[in-house]
Amino acid sequence: MTVLMNDEAFIKKGFQISTDKSLLNIDAIYNYLNDDSYWAQGISRERFEKSIANSMCFGVYQQNNQVGFARVVTDNATFAYLCDVFILPAFRKKGLSKWLVQTIVNHPELKGLRRWSLATADAQGLYSQFGFTQITRPERWMEIFTPYITPDN
């Protein structure tokens, strides 16, 4: 297992963070995103698996069991979009989300990026601890937003 951010307090409790995609519990991640998240409900399995294949993924594990996840869409040079961040409910309030975000923003392949981006409805307090702020010039940003209406779109 490739362990990142070797934090003794978490390691002693059996937690690890890894970018090794072969360790991901794809079913558990998909089930959480599709059934429990507010941002990815309705995503097709095919689209979800394509998102995993084309992203840098961070798994949080306790004793090799998936307890959290995040992915980063990036060019590894100038820009990164942080998304699909979650810790399973039974493992919240332990500092794992902070450890996960800290691990991501300090990852060697993501150092020196000009811009990070993310969207959240309820975790601004978490992300602000790591330098995330509201968009300073929203008039410069545009989007195309197409919710998952059918698996074909």
Automatic annotation (TrEMBL):
Residue ranges of every copy of the N-acetyltransferase domain listed in the record: 15-153
Pfam families xref list = Acetyltransf_1
Please name the Gene3D superfamilies in this protein's record.
Answer: 3.40.630.30
Q: What is this protein called?
A: N-acetylglutamate synthase-like GNAT family acetyltransferase
Concerning CDD domains, the annotation shows: NAT_SF
Which InterPro entries does the UniProt entry name for this protein?
A: Acetyltransferase_Butenolide, Acyl_CoA_acyltransferase, GNAT_dom
Top-rank taxon, per record: Bacteria
